[in-house]
Design goal:
CATH class of the largest domain in chain B: Alpha Beta
Distance between the termini of chain A: 49 Å
CATH class of one domain in chain A: Alpha Beta
CATH superfamily of one domain in chain A: CO dehydrogenase flavoprotein, C-terminal domain
Structural class of chain B: alpha+beta
Radius of gyration of chain A: 19 Å
Strand order of the largest sheet of chain B: 2-1-5-3-4
Number of strands of chain A: 12
CATH topology of one domain in chain A: Enolase-like, domain 1
Number of helices of chain B: 5
Order of helices and strands of chain A: EHEHEEEHHHHHHHEEEEEEEHHH
Number of helices of chain A: 12
Distance between the termini of chain B: 14 Å
Shape of chain A: globular
Number of domains of chain B: 2
Oligomer: heterodimer
Largest interface: A-B, 33 and 31 residues
Largest sheet of chain A: 5 strands, antiparallel
Structural class of chain A: alpha+beta
Strand content of chain B: 5-15%
Order of helices and strands of chain B: EEHEEEHHHH
CATH superfamily of the largest domain in chain B: Beta-grasp domain
Strand content of chain A: 15-25%
Number of strands of chain B: 5
CATH topology of the largest domain in chain B: Ubiquitin-like (UB roll)
Helix content of chain B: 25-40%
Chain lengths: 329, 154
């Protein structure tokens, strides 16, 4: 399979990259590890004018441990992130998620944390070669006006298939986004639009620059649960992350996130309010499963290899497991 | 870039993959094109000592890097221990997955010379084999672990 033609820029600074991005906008995607972008280009899902490589931008890789947070540059490889001392110490949940990504022996060397955050949402009717798609109508993302998985749907329902996204949301990560107007900072939970055709709150001139993980103020327990067909290589067809700070037998802080359902991760707020301030009880995990099931029913459509009804049922299972493990039960 | 120890100067368009350059420009046909979309691992080469899928790596991304293909791991006419173990254990049938498989295994052993079974399986999870059923491949890698000095790098 050959790639389409495009220009290649390898600027040596973020400022230079932003200049090019400002000129070309969405027709110049960022090339980090390329493990998602290049595949999509081979499938002709995009025809960029150019790619902007992060290869020579030293300021886009690196991890800094600060007193109150760990700051990871968006172009840092998944391998470097998972091996970092500060990340391993404060965020073992992130290490677990990274170790689940892709071809486990290969992916993490090229793949980057920013790339996994900005993973293009996936759909079994979209992530196919041009030849395969020539037998189908066009959809919201390929120049049409409908969703092939859910007829009459106003927007694309593709799946946010990243392993790190629910974890970053559960960790209350902050993103620093650089653009022509300077830098802005948003919580990662506000990064997602829930619309598969434009899944991120990013303007065409912007680049995600860094991910800031606040260090938890107390002892944290956590869980990352994912289900996929094979134990490696496959994207999750449902996943969930939960983090808890439990002191003196009481849950002081709790976060539960369901993902790999629709185009955006879903914070299970009802679960949080039911658990916060209480003692951990097994009933809480069961209740979390019920809440996740309802959330999944509203988000999951028939756009994955695993059938919709199965994924909805499994949403309850991963949420239940994640909450149970995070509560130490 | 440096390929198998030799400096190489090749002109490539932006849309050329590392796989295409290694095979078509440099004649290194040991690098195989399996799926061409970064899933099967047949195209695995080592870039600065780390396994990467050359079919989804732009050649221009490899500028300045050190590349090792299957053709580059033998030393002075002697096969690498991983290669010997694959032959001795019948871990090669059609041989198409073999170059990528061996390079992934070599990369693992360079980083961790006494891996557990789970660590071996995790390291090779991105290399698919349709012929052997993986058993003899695992046996070969197990045999080499503990026997390859970590200094045996590119």
């Amino acid at each position: 399979m050959l790639l389409p033609s495009f220009e290649y820029y390898a600027p040596t600074s973020l400022a230079e990259a932003l200049r090019i991005k400002n000129q070309l906008g969405t027709s110049a995607p960022i090339l980090a590890g390329g493990t998602d972008l290049i595949v999509n280009l081979k499938h002709r899902l995009a025809s960029p004018v150019a790619v902007i490589s992060l290869k020579n931008i030293k300021e886009m890789t690196g991890i800094e441990a600060k007193p109150d947070s760990v700051v990871i540059k968006a172009g840092t490889s998944l391998a470097q992130t998972a091996e970092d001392e500060a990340v391993r110490k404060h965020f073992p949940i992130l290490v677990k998620a990274i170790e689940s990504i892709g071809a486990t022996g290969i992916q993490r060397f090229r793949g980057t944390i920013g790339g996994n955050l900005c993973l293009s949402p996936r759909c079994i009717l979209y992530n196919q070669s041009l030849f395969w798609r020539s037998g189908k109508d066009k959809c919201h993302r390929t120049g049409g006006k409908d969703c092939l998985a859910l007829e009459k749907s106003e927007s694309c329902n593709a799946v946010c298939s990243s392993d790190t996204v629910p974890v970053l949301v559960a960790l209350s990560a902050q993103l620093t986004i650089a653009g022509s107007g300077g830098k802005r900072s948003i919580p990662v939970s506000e990064f997602f639009t829930a619309k598969g055709e434009s899944p991120f709150n990013l303007t065409p001139d912007e680049i995600v620059a860094e991910i800031r993980l606040p260090i938890p103020w107390g002892p944290t327990s956590w869980s990352y649960q994912r289900l996929s067909f094979r134990s490696a290589v496959d994207f999750p067809y449902i996943n969930a992350a939960a983090t808890a700070i439990i002191e003196k037998g009481k849950v002081e802080s709790f976060r539960a996130v369901l993902s790999a359902a629709g185009p955006a991760p879903i914070i299970l707020k009802e679960v949080e309010s039911a658990i916060k301030g209480q003692k951990p009880e097994p009933e809480m995990a069961k209740k979390a499963g019920e809440i996740a099931l309802k959330a999944a029913e509203g988000a999951i459509v028939d756009n994955a290899l695993a059938p919709k009804d199965y994924r909805i049922k499994m949403a309850a299972v991963v949420a239940q497991r994640a909450v149970k493990e995070a509560l130490g039960l | 870039m440096t390929v198998n120890g030799d400096p190489v100067d090749v002109a490539a368009p932006p849309s050329a993959t590392l796989l295409e350059v290694l095979r078509d420009e440099l004649g290194l046909y040991g690098v195989k094109e399996g799926c061409s979309e970064g899933v099967c691992g047949a195209c695995t080469v080592l870039m600065d000592g780390q396994p990467v899928r050359s079919c989804i790596t732009l050649a221009l991304e490899a500028e300045g890097a050190t590349i090792t293909t299957i053709e580059g791991i033998a030393r002075d006419g002697a096969l690498h221990p991983v290669q010997e173990a694959f032959i001795a254990n019948g871990a090669v049938q059609c041989g198409f997955c073999t170059p990528g498989m061996i390079l992934s295994a070599k990369s693992l052993l360079d980083r961790n010379n006494n891996p557990t079974d789970d660590e071996i399986k995790t390291a090779l999870a991105g290399n698919f084999c349709r012929c052997t059923g993986y058993t003899k491949i695992l046996k070969a890698v197990r045999e080499v672990s503990g026997q390859t000095k970590p200094s045996q790098t590119d």
